[in-house]
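Aldo/keto reductase, pasting as requested.
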Amino acid sequence: MKSITLKSGNEIPSLGFGTWKLKGDDAKNAVAYALKIGYRHIDAAEIYDNQIYIGAAILESQIPREDIFITSKVFHDHLEPEQIVESCVNTLKDLQTNYLDLLLLHWPNKDIAIEDQLGALNSLKEKNLVKSIGVSNYNIRHLTEALDAEIEFDVNQVEFHPSLNQIKLKQFCEENGIVITAYSPIAQGQDLVLPTVLEVAKKYKKTPSQTILNWIISQDMVTIPRSNKEDHIKDNFGALGWEMEKSDIERLNKLNTNNRLINREWGEFD
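Structure tokens follow.
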């Protein structure tokens, strides 16, 4: 599977499986199927309230732990240093693992110094409980403040799809060695019917979903589509194993309409 080398030296698979809104046995079964067909990157979060089921699926897969990349996140209201540590400990217990490959600050929290938040993540890294650290839903201002803390982090997970391609943010991340992980990559289905997406998909004899996911992966980003339907999970995996021409990447790059779907009040988006 295609992967990207993070600043920390760890390899993150370019295609992951998202678990937001998956509950109970739906979460367990979806993760189990994703692992069965070849996914090796699972994206989780404490706030999703499903990590026990994800952990069970991973354990029952009998795939060696070192072959699976697991991401989790600490939520916006749980970012005091001691809370970050507590969240990590709880997550490790729920996932039945002794380390995370990546732990993210799920949203910005302006009431807590960013150096304290990143410092807590880094302390977990130093204890080998976490291999890499990062942030999520950070804009350029947030990232600038985080970089000023001079604590190395690897990833910024953000909403990213053809109708919200965040070009300036992408460029800033590239310049600073921060890898973008794209969530909601098909805009909750909205971008699957864009005429340009359909035209490019037809050219490569791929589905619209495969086309969008490949467009993201082709730009050295990670993406984490989510579904509880086996046919969709399998279809998304078909984003791998083929290359899109640069001219078609550029065509899809022109579809931005700043169509942000996830906009929490604490996000402070530009």
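Note for the archive: The chain has a mean pLDDT of 97.
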